[in-house]
Write a structure and sequence with these properties.
The protein is of the alpha+beta class and 452 residues long. It has 12 helices and 24 strands. The strands form 9 sheets. Strands 16-21-19-20-17-18 form a 6-stranded mixed beta sheet, with helices on one face. β5 and β6 form a beta hairpin. It is elongated. The C terminus is likely disordered.
Length: 452
């Protein structure tokens, strides 16, 4: 799709190093010439809004969960009018900015910017969230360290931005919205495929680790509700008799271990960077906090475990792959401590009962699971890579369009009017297509759909 969009006919130097050349008809303006700060208080009757890194500005859900404390004096909250831009001063460098969907109140830690006439806020929202613009935020922010920097209004209004003519801003927004809708449909299809395959994999593992491989084996009551009956010759043991668990502690280990670059494991498996190692051997890692609480992963060799992972070291005489499999079906997330950031109740987990086959059975179960799930793992891996590709594609497309590297005026003019049905499709589950069921990535189809 990006390659089919041509550059503008003529360019000029923007005078802004990170921006380079811009289309000849575009201008450059500081944000203070595009927006006016709205600093109004005393509207306690309006709903509370919040800025999310993922969804922009939204109405806060005040369901009594206690996730966030609300100021007792709502008169101190700032008013944001519908279509105002609002950003979190401390997290603007991460993209914590959005457009108010309705009149509402935002925290005093937010800046509210009212767009002036001829300014399409959705164009500038897309611009402000590009990586290049985020890089500029630091230069206009103030603070002791980067993650504590604040972008005050005085800094924001000094930042330069490219400004297309108003009708062109609208065309760019129309094109981005259309492309974004199509890309999200394909991502949802991949996500649904992954969910179905993970459920299939879970069923295979559950059957193997709770019933074994012999369909004719005699069973006995396990005494554990979620297990039901288990093979008669298996032993019921508490988890603490099989392993030792401890939280990842990189700070302590970094002082006593040799320095080197090794994979970093957190609550969701290996991370995208390396650091000093704390562990040497084969272990099972369990997510310790938040939404990843209870996730199970195998880690081998030398690695560093973050504070978001619990490291389980298995006693001798047991098969690691079998052990990881039985933990996967135990739904460890349910054994978390209720809090704003749930944490795994390790002592409670260690006292759980589980069925333990003889070592030979463990080996056969682990081998059977590997044989039956290897194809599933490959398809899931491809689908996840395709999602990453689509997200990268979307990011690059938006950046090229809002900085004038690609001309979408003609393409935007040919787009069909969006119907209610297409909007519903954007929000609903997308059916899994035939090529998806085989793990294929029809990226040409994505491009064709975006162009349509």
């Amino acid at each position: 799709m990006i390659d089919t969009l041509t550059p503008y006919p003529a360019y000029k130097d923007s005078g802004v190093p990170w921006l380079g050349e811009v289309p000849l008809t575009w201008s450059i303006s500081r944000n203070g010439g595009l927006f006016i700060q709205r600093n109004e208080t005393g509207f306690a009757h309006l709903p509370i809004l919040e800025v999310s890194l993922k969804t922009g500005v939204r109405v806060r859900n005040l369901d009594g969960s206690g996730r966030k404390q609300i100021m007792s004096d709502r008169d101190k909250y700032k008013r944001a009018r519908k279509d105002d831009l609002a950003y979190n001063m401390m997290r603007m460098w991460q993209g914590a900015i959005g457009i108010a969907p309705t009149d509402g109140l935002v925290s005093p830690a937010y800046v509210v910017a009212r767009p002036l006439k001829g300014v399409e806020p959705r164009f500038f929202l897309n611009l402000f969230r590009t990586d290049a613009y985020m890089g500029e935020v630091d230069k206009f922010s103030h603070g002791i360290v980067k993650d504590r920097n604040r972008l005050y209004w005085e800094g924001f209004k000094q930042m330069p931005s490219p400004v297309p003519p108003p009708d062109e801003q609208a065309a760019i927004v129309r094109f981005i919205d259309h492309a974004d809708r199509r890309i999200k449909c394909y991502i949802r299809a991949k996500q649904k495929l992954i969910k179905l395959l993970e459920e299939q994999k879970q069923a295979i593992i559950h059957r193997a680790v709770t019933r074994g491989l012999d369909p004719n084996v005699r069973l006995k009551p396990s005494g554990v509700e979620w297990l039901g009956d288990v093979p008669e010759h298996w032993e019921m043991r508490r988890l603490k008799t099989l392993c030792r668990m401890r939280s990842g502690d990189g700070i302590t280990a970094m002082a006593i271990e040799p320095v080197g670059d090794y994979p970093v494991y957190g609550g969701n498996g290996v991370r995208g960077y390396t650091s000093n190692f704390t562990h040497d051997g084969d272990f099972v890692l369990i997510g310790r906090q938040g939404a990843l609480c209870g996730n199970v992963h195998l880690a081998r060799g030398r690695f560093w475990a973050s504070e978001h992972a619990v490291v389980a070291s298995l006693s001798s005489g047991y098969i690691l792959e079998w052990f990881a499999a039985i933990l996967m079906v135990m739904n460890l997330n349910q054994y978390s401590i209720a809090a704003a950031q749930p944490g795994l109740a390790v002592e409670r987990v260690l006292n759980l009962w589980l069925p333990v086959p003889p070592a030979d059975d463990q080996k056969r179960i682990a081998t059977q699971i590997e044989d039956e799930t290897s194809d599933i793992n490959q398809v899931v891996g491809r689908a996840r890579r395709e999602i990453e590709f689509l997200i990268e594609y979307r990011t690059r497309l938006i950046a090229d369009v809002v900085t004038g590297k690609r001309d979408v005026r003609e393409a935007a003019g040919k787009l069909p009017d969006e119907t209610d049905e297409s909007e519903m499709l954007d929000e609903a589950d997308v059916p899994v297509e035939a090529d998806d069921s085989e793990g294929g990535a029809n990226l040409d189809a994505v491009t064709d759909e975006v162009e349509a």
